Amino acid sequence: MNVLKKLILLFGLAAMPAIAPAQAPNPAPQVAAPEAKAVPAPVAATTAATAAPAADAKAATAGPDDGSLPGYTPMKPTPGVGMPVDRGVDFQDQYSANGEYAKWLNNSILLPIITIISLFVLGLLLFVVVRFRRSANPNPSKTTHNTFIEIVWTLVPVLILLGIAYPSLTLVAKQFKPAPKEAVTVKITGYQWYWGYTYPDHGGFEVVSNMLKEQSQVGPGERYRTENDGPSHLAVDARMVVPAGVPIRIQTTAADVIHSFAVPSLWFKLDAVPGRLNEKQLLIEKPGVYFGQCSELCGARHGYMPIAVEALPPEKFAAWIKAKGGTMPGEKPAEAPAAPAAATAAAPAAAAPVAAAAAAVPAK
Ligand SMILES: [Cu+2]
């Protein structure tokens, strides 16, 4: 009975995200207000240091509406890379060393072992059913012990489990190897229901990332998803930009409830827990755009907080940092560039009604 209750509860929870979009079209103004516009404002208001770049990002998206900045144009995703594919049954293609190892472990070790054992047991069952059926075997044997068989059926499973345990534990160890000192740190904060990416090594600015809506869902002049942004429900207005081929130290936390930062094609998943800082290393081998989603049921719009990671060659990453008003490690904390960045942000902000509205909120 308890099990039945739990099942019903689970179904209810699973249906919640499905109900959310059905409600979305009617209370459109309410949905639009807390999600895309008002939400970045409290973030900008919390820390003075992040206020300028956040406003900068807002101003940039209000401009040509493709998320580009001076010296940076968002990369066009390659179809089938870093995203799910139609009728896909396997894991996504992997773009990190850990992912390649894990996919090899699954496809070359686990799947063959599972298949062989299943077929072997099925064969034994069929053999017993046919060979020892009542009509063919009217007087069953009374044998109860066979030392040789008992040793074999104890030892063989132990050896199989040991054979699986070694590469499995190796994978766990690889995944939780601490990042080297020179790794680039990105602190990821989960919010209901969007992501914030902070770059403590690069001036501490925060990128606020919201899911892009479809053209039919936005008002005139508002930014909507195009093919350059990525697939529907995965594309975001501001991506998490990182360097490719360089170790990245990912730290996750959350501001409200537990979220989980997960990107399948990078074999990366790390829970974001309020009041805690989780850490894991990530190394992306190739430049590209890799999509993921929040993977911890975090509320009504859990299904609408996608993740887009854009890995750039290091020099292009440096250009992006500059465009965001940040600094590269070793550079002088740029007092001078920060001021123009804030100034340029302020000008379009005044012109753009969206940014102006966001700027007005912290004032009161
Ligand atoms: Cu979430």
UniProtKB/TrEMBL annotation:
GO terms for molecular function: copper ion binding; cytochrome-c oxidase activity; oxidoreductase activity. Residues 83-179 form the Cytochrome oxidase subunit II transmembrane region profile domain. Its main location: membrane. Keywords: Copper, Electron transport, Membrane, Metal-binding, Oxidoreductase, Respiratory chain, Signal, Translocase, Transmembrane, Transmembrane helix, Transport. Binds a copper A center. Residues 55-77 are annotated as: Disordered. The chain crosses the membrane at residues 109-130, 151-169. Its EC number is 7.1.1.9. Its cofactor is Cu cation. InterPro entries: CcO_II, CcO_II-like_C, Copper_CuA, Cupredoxin, Cyt_c_oxidase_su2, Cyt_c_oxidase_su2_TM_dom, Cyt_c_oxidase_su2_TM_sf. It is a multi-pass membrane protein. Subunits I and II form the functional core of the enzyme complex. Electrons originating in cytochrome c are transferred via heme a and Cu(A) to the binuclear center formed by heme a3 and Cu(B). PANTHER family: CYTOCHROME C OXIDASE SUBUNIT 2, CYTOCHROME C OXIDASE, SUBUNIT II. Belongs to the cytochrome c oxidase subunit 2 family. This is Cytochrome c oxidase subunit 2. It comes from Sphingorhabdus pulchriflava. The lineage of its organism: Bacteria, Pseudomonadati, Pseudomonadota, Alphaproteobacteria, Sphingomonadales.
